[in-house]
Amino acid sequence: MLKKILQFELNARFKQPITLLFFLMLVFQGVWYTQGSYEHYVSDSTLMNGSALFYRNFAGGGMLLIIVIAIITGTLLYKDIQYKSAGFLYALPMNEKQFFLGRFIAAFLINVIISTGFFVGMLLTPYSGIAGPEKFGPMPWGQMFHGFFLLTTVNLFMLTMICFSMLVFFKKMAAGYLSIFGVVMFFLIAEATRENASDPFIYELMDPFTYVYTAHQMDALPAALKNTGYLQFNTTFFLNRLLWVGGSLILFILAYRRFSFKQFITENAKKKSQLVDDTSNSGLKLSIPGVRLDFTSLEFIRKFWRLSVLEFNNVVRPVNFKIILGIFALMFFLQNVMWNATYYLGPTEPLTSVMTFVRLPNGFFIMIILMIWAGELFFKDKVSNIWQITDALPVPIWVTQFSKFVAMCGIALIMALVIMACGIVAQVLMGGWQEIDLLRYADDLLGYKWGWLTFVMHIALVFFVSGLTGNRFLTHILCVGYYLFNIISFDQGIMEEVRFGFALVPGVEDYSELNGYGIWKTASFWFFLMWTCFTVVLVLLGIHFWRRGTSLNFMRKLTFRTNQLNLSGKGVALLSLIAFFFLQSFIVREVNDKGNFETETEEKMSDAAYEKKYKWIEPIPQPKLTSLNVDLDIYPAERKAVYEAEMQLSNRAGIYIDTLYLHFEDFVVFDQIQWNKQSVAIAWIDEALGQLALPVKIDSAETGTLSISAKKQYVGFTQSGESPQPDLTFNGTFMNAKDILPGIGYHSDRELDQNRDRQFHNLEKITSRMAGTQDSEARLEGYFTAYAESIKGTVTISTSVDQMAIAPGKLVRSDEENGRRSYEYNIVDASPYEWYFGSARYEKQSFSEAGLASHFFYKSSHHYNIELFQKVVKNTHQFISEKLGPYPFEELRVVEIPSYQEDNYGFANSIAIAETEGWYVDASGLPEKAYITFSIATQMISHWIHQNVQVANVQGADMLTKALPQALALQVVKSAHGERAVTGLLDKKKSFYGKERGNEPNQEPPLIYADGIDYLEGNKGTMAMYDLSLTIGLGNFYGKLKSWISENENNHVIFEDLYRSLTANLNQSQKTKAANDFEKVAMP
User: Fold this and answer.
1) Which of 51, 85, 66 lies closest to 179 in space, CA to CA?
2) Residues of the domain holding 222
3) Where do runs of H (alpha helix) occur along 641-763?
4) Tens-digit pLDDT profile for residues 932-969
5) pTM of the entire structure?
6) What's the Cα-to-Cα distance from 366 to each of 64, 143, 405, 459, 979, rounded to whole Å?
7) Which of 476, 509, 542 is the last residue of a domain?
8) Which of 509, 530, 552 is the C-terminal boundary of a domain?
9) pLDDT at 344
10) Residue 271 confidence (pLDDT)
11) Which positions ≥6 away from 149 have C-beta within 8 Å?
């Protein structure tokens, strides 16, 4: 009997097309989760198909697998009651215990077979294109089978036992779903809290899937063993299995003993009142009302609305819908409460924008579920074989089919509202009720930035494909397949232009608390309007192509001569299609033609063309910038800057100069150029590549003034994948002076720095991204700007009356006149030409202590950590004064800037910190306090270094400008928060370095020849410098550093010289250790 039950159930399940869809979804999850697990590990020797990654995948299972199990498992035992066949089936002569075991074994085997899709996905990872072949090694077959059978299969066995047991005890389908839901909740809590646990034992026991145990074991393996090592089992593992699998087995045995047909079919509900026939009025005559046929449009609309409500209820009433909705709700809530941390920082304050961001990482699953539900609903009549009746009803097809579309729109709205409710509840529970912003919720969750309207568009896609194909399974495959292709194509850079991605709009991931969506608010509206027109076409064509009755008439429908879609509908479809193509061309003009967007390939072609065309300029002597005065007017609402500048240039080349070469940025328009107050005609200009020449004569040692009158204004709009144009934006403008002012000579920063790209464009390969330490010319250039010394100057800057303007230097005056605010800043002491200007609606707080006036500029609601910021400034100022020397400024500004800028900027008298880097983080924890302290201290120490050291533009420069100030900042952290805080920061740096070094495009250099790659100097360099300072002794380190700086006061310095000076008196073992850190390429 067991054999017959197994054969029947397996055949029944695998004949259903939805089973194949589940399998394919898990294949995709296998690839996706493998990529996610790979990002966790630090060593570049860890392969993407290493056993450690696969073990983590097998233990966790993933959300899709959990949902599939929840849908399939309980149905197998409960379906007889659900479909009212139990009364007949249970009366047959069969053993009820064998029946129960047969259904259980069938459910378990089905779960195992479907879960092999997860296994297959991992096998296919090397062929998925998500990484190059160097990231993969031999497939660890033994470890994969080991993990699949001892982790995934055992977990499936446990979940199946729990689900069946709960069904027997409670005789409700909801009990099976809720039991799986409860187990998953234990897993989520254990995983969410394990990172901060001092003792992981309790969390390893709490986790029903042993994921926490597996993660800890795999993380502890050496890098090489992460590729080939087997998961080792200890007492903790066996205790976990005893607790969860053993407990589940006991529960299952009790359910087995309890199960009987009589017990299982008996309802738990209260007894229903008996219906008694009333025969007292059996002879009463009844009058049947007459039937009036009504085929008016108004009646069709009434029927349409009633059917929409009916179809909506048919979807939301089943228990599986409520369970899946509950799982999503839990995920949304926990992510808002526990998982909204950044890399260095923990959870943020409960801002609404943080709450709505959860729609993005989880939107992938929501969309797939909605598309599957939509496909099932659209074909419901055909699956249940009532289409012969519904198709014969005397109503237009739009009444029956469009009602299903509207019902699914209602389901999508429920999803969006659940995300909103979870966010609001999380905010209230976290004490942030005052941060609730209903307009932000509405815009993000109900609008078209991956909210409800985006869901509606994808439902429309399913509606169209279902009408076009007339096949439920093919509809699922095409729609989900296209959706996955769309997501993967943009994620992998296969497609870059958003106008090619159905229902996508720019900037959904780039919300800034300061600037909102910025220019993307405008761009996203036009993209949404374009996709709305296309969605209307899809819906109308879905009605037109829907197969009604038995006749296909498909070829005839292609001629649009049928009446299934009336003339008005065809006209609207045609007009919408015309509008779609018109908006496509409009977007191309605004985004591409106006220069707001280039694909990555186009950018590289442009940079290669610049190098090929203008490399000859590089060796030609040019003057140096020695002083600068700027008069800048910013118009935030227009994204425009109008400015005049006087650039004092000195010829220090020792020879006569007859041509001045300038490079400039896009959108810059020169109104007038003068040399020593005399107008100069441009000899030639290349607008496309941003280069021009001026016939200016400068004698040796002569100094002259280049006067510029110009403006910069962005026109049109940009899209995701391109810069948000942050140098001129509505609120939160932050620009480098070089964004608007011309640079002198050849623009070397435009050169391609990856040898693969250089080879492709027929350019000579490079051995380093920077000039070598023996390059005599580069050693005379400043690191920050090759054509400029440290300079003095003034900045007069104005902005709109509701904003404050920021610039380098000491504030001399500020006033308000003619509806604008004006400020004047003076750079008294020469500073590196790394000047920044900003403008935003700021709140300001000021403090003054120990001769330093500090001012904090921030969004009015981001006041959370100002007291901590002020304390860090005080402590760092004291550290610099005591250990290094006088702090170079009497006035310091700490400014909040939008999140899409770099994390931190330091320039004269100023520090700019991105909003996500501490302004609204919950700074109650030690890691958060440590990181905020580290960030501000680094920039203040950089001020001291930059004012006292002229760094040469050669290899190792970032060791002086990044690694050295960060290593010193760790001492401020240690003094304020202890050794544990420093250890946490160093661990993060080691992790980041280890992950990113595997992406080195050329060849990683040793630290003394570091050439300006992001992952190296600020991570490995900081660790090495901090370790060297402890080896030397802090007192000796500070003394040697100050002596070396004093000796090279008037020279451009290189890091290699400092390194030799610091290590000169070390013993042999210490020198060997330093040489391994600084002179060799290896993990620290």
Assistant:
1) 66
2) 2-265
3) 755-760
4) 999 999 999 999 999 999 999 999 999 999 999 999 99
5) 0.80
6) 11, 33, 17, 12, 44
7) 509
8) 509
9) 58
10) 43
11) none
